[in-house]
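Hi, can you check this record?
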Amino acid sequence: MSETTLRAALQLLLSRSVPGDPVRILWHAGEPLAVGLKFFERASEIIRECNPGSVRITQIIQTNGTLINEEWCRFFVRENILVGVSVDGPATVHDLHRRSPRNEPTHARVMKGLDLLKIHGIPLHAIAVITPQSLNFADEIFDFFIEAGFNTVGFNLEETEGVHASAFSNTQEDAGQFREKYSAFMSRLFDRWYSAKKRPIIREFESMSIAIGSFLRNHGFKRTADDLIPFRNIVVTRDGEISTFSPELASGTPSDPLRFSIGNVHKISSFDALLANRKFQELEREIKVGVARCQSECEYFPVCGGGMASNKFYEHGTFDCTETMNCALTRKTLTHVVAERLRKLSAPTCGMK
């Protein structure tokens, strides 16, 4: 991303913020560290220039960890940057899919990066992608994150999006098998996690426990899905194209990469222009229709909030739909797993004197 694009993006972002607002700038997609340290040093300077302290900006970098060295670690500490590492578990799981350009395993390089982060006192946060193969290694995956010393872990399901087709098939037969395996995987993971005093923090268990608890206390509760709220997420590509709702929509479609672009930071000067954009208005309308269908048809809506916009489109070619493979597993199946365990944990016990 050029300095001109970064400044224009910050100007647009900060025009919507008021003093004291917390704003997170997440460097993501591809491998951010590949652009080099000098880019991020300059970017941090530009962020300070564009925001003289009135808005609370936090930078986050999501990296595969293979390029982390001493110099990067000193920079992370100096700039107080949060670091997320994309790692799927032990080498037997991670190296199945995360290969180098030469098709070599990468896990050993990731571990070197993790060791450096720990040496510099940088907390470890992970995003782990769950594939059909991962579902066979619940204990090994949990042991890895415990032994490596991670503070938090988020488990993303391998998804169909952009040009990528997920290995999780949505046929009726395969869907049933995946639900059964995913349920067993998450059940085992929950048991291990609870026995370890809920460490590390596992995003899926924490968020679903909160949603279920909120619903039980108030049956009018409805979970809010960030990627269904316009401008809760704002994506700016390196060329300045803007999209919102699900970050994954920034990739568009193979035939139309700008399918969901609603403007460019070099051509607009305010959020009013984005709100008036016909593509945005149509996108918002279609997403709302899909959410309304979920609310009227799905009993899981209170603890889901309407699914994920990108999953709906990339699996079904429209936002006006309900169940996706992602929601069948990470919402419906996970609801049963967490609810059943919370029920058992809260049930009174009896014993003999």
User: Anything to note?
Assistant: The first strand starts at residue 22 and ends at 27. The longest helix spans residues 172-195. The mean pLDDT is 93.
